[in-house]
Specification:
Blueprint (H helix, E strand, L loop, with lengths): L5 H12 L5 H4 L19 H7 L4 H10 L5 H9 L2 H20 L18
Amino acid sequence: MVKLSKRDLNLSIQIETGHALLAGHVSHWADIDDTCELCLEDTETVEHLWEECPALEQWRREVHEVHKDEPEEKRRLRFFQYSTIRELLELRSKQCEDKRNLRSGGERPRCCPGDGDVDD
């Protein structure tokens, strides 16, 4: 069994469930456009970034080539640890936090797992 930090475990769960703080998911409860911030071509989802986003093509190819002997789950985690994607997740986390602060009582949206605490 692989040991993961709390931060990586949180990210891994978000990736595997599709409940990552990306526009396609956050747009279900926050008033934001679900278009991918990186390519402006499709809905920003885990699948789009991992499989299709042209803005991440070089990084995706590098992860697949350099880490080809690793299990896919580990490669996906490496891929989503890329600084550009981390910054995107942090932006969405901020948008989620702003939305929560606008609501009375500041309660967490039910479908917002840990609000993407990417810094834990």
